[in-house]
Write a structure and sequence with these properties.
This protein is of the alpha/beta class. Helices cover 44% and strands 14% of the residues. α2 crosses α3, α6 packs antiparallel against α7 and α8 packs across α9. The radius of gyration is 22 Å and the shape is elongated.
């Protein structure tokens, strides 16, 4: 029979669970942060493409690669916000740059954090702070809607509060929005706040805390076709230029868009029809 002291102890454990144990960071190059309970789940095989296959984003690629290399070598580096057109390789670039740094011999770890788990980021930082590795903390598709208070938790990553951001952690985020929130939300803040400029400044200034802003813009047709040709050459899919052009443009027209994602979707279909495993 469980006594009252045991029941009280069990209740306290549920309210304030013990700190998450540190995983074996040497067992994988990537991890995903989960809560309830807090834990870092290793990812044995990170889904990514080689950095050389990312076409049309040369400047962003070179800038992020240099910044990540500095960080991996223990030198000063900036948090980065990759923003802009959807499907143009923002998250792919983060993962590809991480792979490139690994290939250079730096044991850098990639940790993915979901936007919904931002309130737990303080606990995650405490777990990473004492680890003997360097980490890229990655949040994909970061944005905030009306009355969303998660952005306040993000300041712990970018500014670090009293303790400061751990020296072995850098934060990369992707977003379709440069200021991480829709324009109508900004206008609503201006129209309803007692002091409109202060209300807008608190949220808009969040993106200013990123030292690097890397913009991604829609590709033109030549870049779109070059992406597909690069995939074909890399994976050994044989197709002549005339057929590729006709099929790829038709595929683009049916999707009503032209982007790196659409290029990869067409190539996936082409490889499947040609019996090539990716």
């Amino acid at each position: 029979m469980i006594g009252p002291l045991e029941r009280i102890a069990a209740a306290l454990d549920r309210l304030a669970p013990p700190a998450a144990p540190a995983p074996d960071f040497g067992g994988a190059d990537g991890f995903v942060w989960h809560t309830d309970p807090d834990r870092l789940v290793p990812v044995p095989d990170i889904s990514r493409v080689p950095v050389d296959l990312l076409v049309g984003i040369d400047r962003s690629r070179d800038t992020l690669l240099a910044n990540t290399r500095q960080f991996a070598e223990g030198l000063p580096a900036n948090n980065a916000l990759l923003w802009g057109a959807r499907g143009m390789g923002k998250s792919s670039l983060v993962k590809a740059v991480h792979a490139a740094i690994l290939n250079e011999g730096h044991p850098l770890k990639l940790v993915e954090l979901q936007r919904e788990d931002l309130p737990s980021v303080g606990r995650l930082l405490n777990l990473l702070r004492g680890a003997p590795h360097r980490f890229v903390l990655f949040c994909d598709d970061l944005s905030f809607s009306h009355d969303d208070q998660h952005y306040k938790s993000l300041k712990a990553v970018l500014d670090g509060g009293v303790e400061g951001r751990p020296d072995n952690v850098i934060f990369y985020a992707t977003s379709n929005r440069r200021h991480l929130m829709p324009r109508d939300m900004i206008e609503n803040e201006r129209g309803s706040a007692i002091n409109p400029s202060e209300a807008v400044e608190e949220k808009v200034s969040l993106s200013d805390r990123f030292g690097l802003w890397l913009g991604f813009h829609p590709c033109d047709q030549d870049q779109y076709l070059a992406m597909i040709r690069g995939y074909c050459d890399a994976y050994g899919v044989k197709i002549d230029d005339q057929s590729l052009r006709a099929e790829a443009i038709e595929w683009q027209a049916t999707r009503g868009a032209r982007s790196g994602r659409v290029a990869w979707q067409y190539f996936t279909d082409l490889a499947g029809r040609r019996g090539i495993a990716l």
